[in-house]
Each structure stands twice: as structure tokens, then as C-alpha cells.
Design a protein that fits this description.
The complex is a heterodimer. By secondary structure, chain A is of the alpha/beta class. Chain A is built from 8 helices and 24 strands. The radius of gyration of chain A is 24 Å and the shape is elongated. Chain B has one domain: Roll (Ubiquitin-like (UB roll)), CATH 3.10.20.30. The chains are: A alpha/beta, B alpha+beta. Chains A and B meet through strand 20 of A and loops of B.
């Protein structure tokens, strides 16, 4: 059991800065995120794209912003729990008990949800029968590639994941790569490589095709793919892989008794607390009149939510407003030596 | 104002006056038309504002930027008339545009 003052759900810019604000006022926190790294949408969706509206930072990329925030919270030694999704929530007297998908448990005084638009999950095939095979012969990510050796694999998608796996698996498996158009979003060099392999007969490329159906007994046996013009091809396949990127899902947060409105959590603007005492929501996931989905708004929300957490974490103490420029206590927490 | 017609998956038709300069996505969100999520808020980063454009309008729309087709690869059941509604800015030329919203966005 990890005992800390506050659990932050979401390691995007808003969650990271909230950790800083908690640290400054002397509260401890830990951060859970479903992705394998910190940064949230900034890292997952646009690591290389510039951002121009961070106050006092004329231009930076999503990756630079994340790295700077991580540097800013370094003095607080915040513990991260990545690849974990928060699943269960229980109130225990004045504390919250939380359990993640990987079985990590927390005992905290308050919770800050900084979950963006939810946790990232793989996008799935729209064909209904795919569910039946998911996890046994149909996958959206690869954990153990050895199972594909000497098998026939049908890979769907046109991004880097689809191309990279098609190239790699073509060494040891019979690979079909199916994509909905002639153009690919993956790296040009990979596209060339795939075309070469197709010309050499080491891989079968089908463009302008999409999945029509899958069939099989317990495991997939055949896949039908449909051309833009309606022609249907049936291909034998032991495994199907789909790489359509990630989608954001609100997930178990929906069951926590929070007031949810259009996939966002309603909060007050005094301290960004939800209708449930001790649970706060900040950043893209919260809604209130006038809400702007900007990183800078998330920073403001995090600063106020951090102070809102104080009375739960230290009920017998009074929080005094201080500036980091002059506060000895804040500077000690930051590890500044004079 | 331009009239935009949204055909939703529940077989309902909503014709809305959308202010010029807004996107077709924003017109739907502001008028509570169901089925457009627009998770990323219009940044061409998510494909959850995906719509099917009525065929006769396809040529009248602004050409897709590179990133739009890439994102459409990720959309739920993309077709030849698929567009991201956050990339369609309402103007006089689009007065009368009709789009259909897919059964889901992800």
C-alpha cells in the first residue's frame, strides 16, 4: 500500500504542474498514468508539434514542455506509476483507497483527476465478430512476437506500427498488410521497404481494402477484406493485428458517482473540487462555465486544486499564502541552497 | 449564417444555422448534435469528429491537409466521403452542406 497525501490521475502537463503546486505547499503525491511515459496528449499526440501559447514560452514542442515540467518537479521526487489504470475506488473513513489495473494500491487523503479526455486505449475493428477473437488470435499490440513464427498474419493499418511490424514479421511469418488507401501515414522509408518486400513476394500488400469479416472456430481461420469498389477477397489467416492508433476512453471514472457532462467532470471554480468531497478534477477533463481546453488553464486549475487538497491532507493545519520568491519553506522544499 | 444539415445515426435530421467562420464540428457541438465527440478540440489529432459528406458536396470542400487523411486512417469505418468536421470551416459556399454522422467515433 502506497500512502501519500494526494493521488494524481494523469501525467499530462496539468497533472505534472499540479504535483509541483502540491510540493510547494508541502504535500506529497504520486502519479498514475495509463501510458508508458509522462506527458499525456503532448507526448502521445504531438511530441514534435510546436505549442505557442504557454505563458512566457514563445514556442516549444510537446516533448520539451513535458521535459521542462519533469525538471520542475524533480525536487519533490514524485513517484510515477506508469502503464497503470486506476480501477477501484473506496472511501475508508477520511481516506481514499485506490487500486490500479496492475494491483498497485494507494491510501490517500485526496484525489486529483487530471485525466485529459480519458485514458488512451487502442482503437478497435468495427467488425463485431472481432471481439470474440480478441486476445487469442486478434491483437491490437504485440507482447510476444514468437507466437507468430511460421504463421500467416494479416496486419491492418497504414501508420508506423503497422508498417514496422509488417516488415519485422515478414522475416519469420507470412504477412498480409491491408490498408484502406494507397497513401500511408508511416515513415517513407518503411513504405518503400514494404513495397520492395511486396515486389519480392515476401509480403502481400492490399491497398484500398478494409476488413469485411473474420471467421473461425475458437481461433481465426479466415479474414474477408473488401475493396473500395466492392470486390471481396478471402484470405487465410492465423492471426489478425490491428494498428489504428489510440482513442481516449473515460473508463472506470464513470462509476465514481461524479457529475459527468459530455465526457467531462463538473467542478466548482473555487478549488476545482467535484461533487464528491476530496475528489478534484483539472485540465481537459473538467468542465465549468467558460472552460477553455488550454494547457495554461490546466496550470491554474492545478494550483487551486492543490490548495483545495490541503484541508484533507492536513486538517489540523492552516495553509498560508506565500510566494516562492520569498518563502523559506517553499525554497527548502525545492531544495534551494543559499 | 449558413445552413448545415446533420444526419445522425438515429435517423434524425438536424438543420442548423451555423455562424460563418465556425467549423462544422463546432456547429454540432454548440447545438448538442449527438455523435461528434471532438476529443482533441479541433486539432486534427484524434478523428472523433469524423463525418460522411453527401457526395455532391465533396468537390466543393477545401482540400484535405496531409494530416487529415492520416487521421482518417484511424477513424471508425472511413469511406471515400469521410472528412474530419473540425477541418470544414463554414462559409457561404457551404450553405446547404449535408453530413452524416457515423454510428460511433471510436
Amino acid at each position: 500500500m502506497n500512502k501519500t497525501d494526494v493521488l494524481i490521475i494523469g501525467a499530462g502537463p496539468t497533472g505534472l504542474f499540479c504535483a509541483h503546486q502540491l510540493g510547494i505547499i508541502g504535500l506529497s503525491c504520486e502519479i498514475v498514468d495509463n501510458l508508458d511515459k509522462a506527458g499525456g496528449q503532448c507526448i502521445e499526440l504531438y511530441p514534435d508539434k510546436p505549442i505557442y501559447d504557454i505563458p512566457a514560452v514563445p514556442e516549444c514542442t510537446g516533448e520539451e514542455l513535458t521535459n521542462n515540467l519533469l525538471k520542475q518537479i524533480k525536487p519533490f521526487n514524485v513517484k510515477f506509476h506508469l502503464n497503470e489504470r486506476v480501477e477501484e475506488l473506496k472511501k475508508n473513513q477520511n481516506r481514499w483507497h485506490i487500486k490500479t489495473s496492475g494491483g498497485v494500491e494507494f491510501d490517500v487523503a485526496a484525489i486529483v483527476i487530471a485525466g485529459g479526455v480519458g485514458s488512451f486505449e487502442p482503437r478497435k475493428f468495427s467488425v463485431k465478430e472481432c471481439e470474440k477473437f480478441e486476445g487469442n488470435s486478434l491483437f491490437y499490440s504485440i507482447k510476444d512476437k514468437s507466437i507468430f513464427k511460421d504463421k500467416t498474419i494479416s496486419i491492418f493499418g497504414g501508420g508506423d506500427s503497422a508498417l514496422d511490424w509488417a516488415i519485422e514479421l515478414s522475416n519469420t511469418s507470412k504477412v498480409n498488410l491491408i490498408h484502406r488507401r494507397d497513401g500511408f501515414s508511416g515513415a517513407e522509408s518503411s513504405v518503400q521497404k514494404v513495397k520492395e518486400l511486396n515486389d519480392q513476394g515476401k509480403l502481400n500488400l492490399y491497398t484500398k481494402y478494409q476488413m469485411d469479416s473474420v471467421s473461425g472456430d475458437t481461433q481465426i481461420e479466415t479474414v474477408k477484406i473488401k475493396h473500395d469498389e466492392g470486390e471481396i477477397k478471402e484470405i487465410k489467416s492465423d492471426y489478425v493485428l490491428g494498428f489504428f492508433g489510440l482513442i481516449m476512453q473515460l473508463g472506470p471514472i464513470l462509476d465514481w458517482g461524479l457529475n459527468i457532462n459530455k465526457k467531462t467532470v463538473e467542478v466548482n471554480t473555487e478549488n476545482f473540487e467535484t461533487n464528491v468531497s476530496g475528489i478534484f478534477a483539472i485540465g481537459d477533463i473538467c468542465s465549468y462555465p467558460g472552460k477553455l481546453k488550454l494547457i495554461l488553464s490546466g496550470f491554474h486549475e492545478g494550483a487551486l486544486a492543490a490548495r483545495g487538497c490541503f484541508k484533507y491532507a492536513k486538517p489540523d493545519e492552516k495553509l498560508r499564502f506565500e510566494f516562492t520568491t520569498t518563502s523559506k519553506a517553499a525554497q527548502e522544499r525545492l531544495g534551494i541552497k543559499k | 449564417m449558413a445552413k448545415i444539415t446533420y444526419h445522425t445515426h438515429d435517423n434524425k435530421t438536424h438543420t442548423i444555422d451555423v455562424q460563418k467562420g465556425l467549423t462544422v464540428m463546432e456547429g454540432a457541438i454548440q447545438n448538442d448534435i449527438p455523435g461528434i465527440d471532438a476529443d482533441c478540440g479541433g486539432g486534427m489529432a484524434c478523428a472523433t469528429c469524423h463525418v460522411y459528406v453527401k457526395e455532391e458536396w465533396l468537390d466543393k470542400l477545401p482540400v484535405k491537409e496531409d494530416g487529415e487523411e492520416d487521421m482518417l486512417d484511424m477513424a471508425f469505418e472511413p469511406k471515400n466521403n469521410s472528412r474530419l468536421s473540425c477541418q470544414l470551416i463554414v462559409s457561404d459556399e457551404l450553405d446547404g452542406l449535408e453530413v452524416s454522422i457515423p454510428s460511433k467515433q471510436g
